[in-house]
Amino acid sequence: MLSSVQFFLLYNTYELKNEHYYLSELSIINTEYSRAIRNDKVMPGGQKIFDHYIDANMHRLEGGFLHNPREFALLGQRLCDSAFQDLRKANNLDSLLGVIIKRHGLSRNLEYGLFVQSVEIAFQRDKFIPLYKPASREPYGARIGGTLKDINSHNLATALTVSSSVDYSYGTTFTLHADIKNRKMTILKLMMPTFLLSLLSVSAVVLLFFITFRNWIKQKKLSEMKSDFINSITHEFHTPLAAIIVANKTMQNEKIIASPESLLPLTEVVQRQADRLKTLISQVLEITTMNKISLNKEEYSLHHLLDEILLDYRLKLTGANVRLMLHKDAQWDTVLLDKFWFATILLNIFDNAVKYNNSVAKEITVTTFNDKKGTNLAISDNGIGMTREIQKHVFEKFYRNMQNANGQVKGLGLGLFYVRQAITAHNWKIELESMEGKGSTFVIGIPF
Do the Cβ atoms of 191 and 16 come closer than 8 Å? Predict the structure, then answer.
């Protein structure tokens, strides 16, 4: 809307300047030119040329008009063409305009166009008959001289009709257009302050819009942070609750009740998951955004932690055709980490490995190994895999790969986003290797 208004104002300003530009100069040219041809036609000496062709053939024209209209038309056209040709040869307007420019100090960068618009003949007083009229290809008439191409009302200097109110006379209408070269560019240069002012006003509005938009983005982020908080807690509560429910149902089995030694591992599972819920609740007031994770690092045996986490996850998968394997290839497995967030990392990767898997027998393989930099943890699956384009976005907040999931995958697209944030908070690295249809592998690098 603003752009339309600005364009309308600039266009009207241009038209106004175009209408008034060179107006005083045209007035001077009109006065001097009219004085120079006061007793003449078209240009000094033009009267003599017209008299030679029209006055000398007046009676032939009259006879043709009265007895043979076709012959009259052809003769009139031939006489006018000859007169125009002689006028072009005798054109002296260049020198006349040179004198006017020098006398009044006008721009020397001047172009003009001199035209004859009509020639009429009268055998009886004031009863004029057209002898020449402009054709459609030359709307301004026959050009006698000048190189001005852009002919319009803005550069019209003079328009005269000269005739006599007597028998056997003729009249002519002719115009003179004058303008400087590159008129449009000159006017645009004159409008430069207006352009700059318009540009500044548009820039100011755009700046205000940007500031408003930025503030809106900030408010949107605050709103997202509140939503993320609720989504995070809901997402993280699900895993320990599921494990506790499964363990509780198992403990209600009569065979388990009859075998007290079988109850101890289940009570340990309940205890660990209850502790995890307790930790979640204690962090409710701390988690305002996943970019600010509060870590409580301690030294742990990576293999021992993996045994615990995989045991709990196997309970969650009870009844599902999922095979969870652990290969302990690392010789050095002591790591410094936050146990809560480490479990969060693995559980989210496991969940994705199960969700994005169309195989009848799903497999998740966890492997530890050492290199020169530290201890590494690789989690591989036989799921649907990912294209390169999906891999670019997989760690983004709320991103969900629905390409090959047939719309059956549930969740909010937060799991791998949390993984990335927890990895970053630990100053670890995570790499993704995947190929469509051939599963995925996440490799977590834990430096010594």
Answer: no
